Amino acid sequence: MLQFVDRQQAMPDKRAADARRRDFGEIYEGYSDTGAASQAGRCSQCGVPFCQVHCPLHNNIPDWLMLTAEGRLEEAYEVSSATNTFPEVCGRICPQDRLCEGNCVIEQSGHGTVTIGSIEKYITDTAWEKGWITPIKPMRERGESVGVIGGGPGGLAAAEQLRRRGYKVTVYDRYDRIGGLLIYGIPNFKLEKDVVLRRARWLEESGVEFALNTEVGTTISFADLRAKHDAVLIATGVYKARDLKAPGVGQENIIPAMRFLTASNRTGLGDTVDDFDSGALNAAGKNIVVIGGGDTAMDCVRTSIRQGAKSVKCLYRRDRANMPGSQREVANAEEEGVEFVWLAQPEGFTGDATVTGVRSQRMRLGRPDATGRRSPQPIDGEIDTHEADLVIMALGFDPEDLPVLWGEPELPVTRWGTVKVDHRTQMTAMPGVFAAGDIVRGASLVVWAIRDGRDAAASIHDYLKARAAAPAAAE
Fold this sequence. Notes:
Structural class: alpha/beta
Distance between the termini: 58 Å
GO molecular function: 4 iron, 4 sulfur cluster binding; metal ion binding; oxidoreductase activity
Strand content: 15-25%
CATH topology of the largest domain: FAD/NAD(P)-binding domain
Number of strands: 15
Organism: Pacificispira spongiicola
Protein name: NAD(P)-dependent oxidoreductase
Domain FAD/NAD(P)-binding: 146-453
Helix content: 25-40%
CATH architecture of the largest domain: 3-Layer(bba) Sandwich
Keywords: 4Fe-4S, Iron, Iron-sulfur, Metal-binding, Oxidoreductase
Radius of gyration: 23 Å
Shape: globular
């Protein structure tokens, strides 16, 4: 350990931009055994590990880095998976530059961060290859059952923790595959779908049941779920696209990001997608304009490049330093040919029924707003028009109106539409009904959904134990 002075930072080999523009394969190769051990050995083993502090899961990062450096990979995986249900996913898609790696003491001292995410990916991929990851076998089976609504990262993390405690768990999901955003939202070049499907099979082999193509409120009522299970967890995520109010916004070829990404991912999975085949959701040969500056916008611009777009622009109303997305993702997109138009606020769309361009107002940055970022302010008379055959709106997501969709007016929600819970227990005002992930906190990171799902599982366990003990105490 402590080799950061003499040993330079070395990321895994990254495929050349020209090559990766042509397919949806992951852009980074894996570490060799010696490469991973060498890079893990750069860790300074801080007394106060800020990497761990700034990880939502509080992963024991210095410990599994040390074990990797010593070649004790099976132990490294045991430590890594003790706090994280999906280390192979987080190692690929977490914005490490904003979390663990961005707060690494070595990074702050100018020596270049330890490549935590890539080593985490290496550890878990090795564990799968070696057969160290086996189905869950609870120490004892419990009689109670839990229904989980939503098969995304939060719901699956909760299911895994509940199954370890011996509960019968059924995950209900509206889609035909388990994984939620991990399957249909995140492109293959960041997260290959076999990685997600492999973990889903593992959960199924562990005794978790999946009810796919099941829409709560349509296929099954929420009341029936409550009657069927001893506790219910709402982990639906947030999928309602935020809209932009501007002249011409209702024209054809102006689409929400998830519609575009889902079509692309379904096509990659081998599904027939009529709107993709017809060209409606296919960027090939088109001038693409993506509006937004988050990670979803980065997924859209980089997917468009791979589909063979004629040109790809990303419009964002702030500058590069104030954008919410990962700086690493921006750099990758620029390498692949995406043009970023900073300080550009869309204010209208040209065209007659079908969009032909995006008019944008040039902005400058004023004083910081409530989030701490500098507020964009218009520059009078500075208007640009960007040619567009397809405009993709990546402005974020809001919750669906669950009380209406489910016919449950008693389900408590906030003024933003998120489910209202007691944050100490993650239980709603409805006894035995819990909620976790984006449906509680609003659109956020996958790693936060995993954290919330694990915490909710612990609270459900406490609730069911207390309920079981109550009759005995009464006697």
